Amino acid sequence: MNDKAALMPRRREAHPVPYWPDYKTSVTRSPSLPLLSMESTPSEETGPRFGHSLIGPLDNNLIVNYTGGKAPAVGERIRVHGRVLDETGRPVPQTLVEIWQANAGGRYRHIKDTYFAPLDPNFGGCGRTLTDADGFYEFMTIRPGAYPWPNRANDWRPMHVHFSIFGHAFGQRLISQMYFEGDPLIDRCPIMATIRDRSQIERLVAPLDMQNSRAMDYLAYKFDIVLRGRRQTMFENKPEGM
Amino acid sequence: MTQPLEMLIETPSQTGGPYVHIGCIPSFAGVEGIYPEDLGLSPIAKGARGEAITVTGSIYDGTGWAMRDAMLESWQADAAGLHPGQQGADPNVSGFCRFAADKDSGEFTLKTVKPGPVMGRDGPLMAPHISLWIVARGINIGLNTRVYFDDEDNSADPLLARIEQRHRVDTLIAKTTGVGAYRFDVRLQGEGETVFLDL
């Protein structure tokens, strides 16, 4: 028996458009036919769950997790923290949050990244954590550098951290990017521009959070994340016609 | 004036980018030593009940090129049609797998057990299927689709029944290529475009 309420339909207008010619790769990788819409089923309402045994003590500290704590990465030390909620405003506890990013010079540790900026021998570029019982998470990392990328003749990615969030249902699965308050490259970025709703763009820009910064140590940025919610009704789960 | 609804809006998606593997399957990307192993290496453990199957395929862009940089996630029920976490579900089926297109050929492989029919919402059973989620550079919001099987009875499946252009149903059905072996190709755009889902 299905004991879960349906997921709220995804508000597609709040998301990027799939086809955006200024982001050239999207031109051949965007479906041209409409998506098939239907109410969610148990296949979308259930999802993988991960436990604390998965998470190592340094997993959410990108400054030191690549060297096992032996040597810190180069860069401006920052704390990225926030809360995972759903559309109803309820916290999403015990959910896996993964991040990845370029190093302080704007270079990824990846065979395909050939940018001039050097690799940092002490920086791997990924981390993960579980939200706590109230949906809070935090990472320590370094501020990633901006970098040029092959798109239009002179496109640069603003400083950003990639986020992957699971939620508790496969239909809540989300990958996004966090940007930094005040970065002038944000408004020039064709990937950011795939989001047509200005207020939704702002949802991805983390404010500097001085109150949660630590003197002589790190600056903090706050980044809250909202996943799809579930419909709330007492009429759910009754046989048809009742 | 009315009362405010006070609903939050989902955080907008952004592309996983070309380096999604660093964050999700770092060992695959050559970033070793941070985690003991990549997450979701297999959806099953030894002793999983049911028919062992292998699903192989490629993801083609609008030009017909097999993408080398796509990452996929799958989610499925066990052989009895129960999802992990549900009472009585097979403890050796985690149901979740992460895998990637091969860097040279673009081909992906999923080794699992065939799921059983799953209870639908207020309706008939859904035919056995595996949910797929595809992310890559150039995909601005992850693409959801399903893998059904050509040797199962799909005639009463409520999702397949909603596809108006009946020839498009085929894009969701994996074809038998051998004993327990299936082929499932995904076409993002153009002729034979896969049916993508908004569930």
Query: Residue-averaged pLDDT of chain A, rounded?
Result: 95
**Helix/strand structural class of chain B:** mainly beta
**Biggest pleated-sheet summary of chain A:** 5 strands, mixed
| SSE topology string of chain B | HEEEEEEEEEE
Strand content of chain A: 15-25%
Radius of gyration based on Cα positions of chain A:
20 Å
Order of helices and strands of chain A: HEHEEEEEEEEHEEE
Number of helices of chain A: 3
Separation of the first and last Cα atoms of chain A = 17 Å
Brief synopsis:
The complex is a heterodimer of chains A (242) and B (199). By secondary structure, chain A is mainly beta. Chain A has helices at 26-29, 42-45, 198-202; strands spanning 36-37, 77-86, 96-100, 126-130, 136-142, 147-149, 155-157, 160-165, 174-180, 205-206, 219-222, 225-227.
Structure description:
The complex is a heterodimer of chains A (242) and B (199). Chain A is mainly β and 242 residues long. Chain A has a single domain (14-28, 46-227), classed as Aromatic compound dioxygenase (Protocatechuate 3,4-Dioxygenase, subunit A, Sandwich). In chain A, 5% of the residues lie in helices and 24% in strands. Chain A has helices at residues 26-29, 42-45, 198-202; strands at residues 36-37, 77-86, 96-100, 126-130, 136-142, 147-149, 155-157, 160-165, 174-180, 205-206, 219-222, 225-227. In chain A, strands 4-3-8-9-10 form a 5-stranded mixed sheet, with no helix packed on it. The longest helix of chain A is centred in the C-terminal third of the chain and has 5 residues, at 198-202. The mean pLDDT of chain A is 95. By secondary structure, chain B is mainly beta. Chain B has one domain (42-187): Aromatic compound dioxygenase (Protocatechuate 3,4-Dioxygenase, subunit A). Chain B has 1 helix and 10 strands; from the N terminus they run H-E-E-E-E-E-E-E-E-E-E. Chain B has one helix at residues 20-24, and strands spanning 52-60, 71-76, 96-100, 107-113, 130-135, 143-149, 173-178, 181-183, 186-187, 197-198. In chain B, strands 1, 2, 3, 4, 5, 6, 7, 8 and 9 form a 9-stranded mixed sheet that branches. The two termini of chain B are 33 Å apart. The interface between A and B is large, with 91 and 79 residues. Strand 1 (36-37) of chain A pairs parallel with strand 10 of chain B.
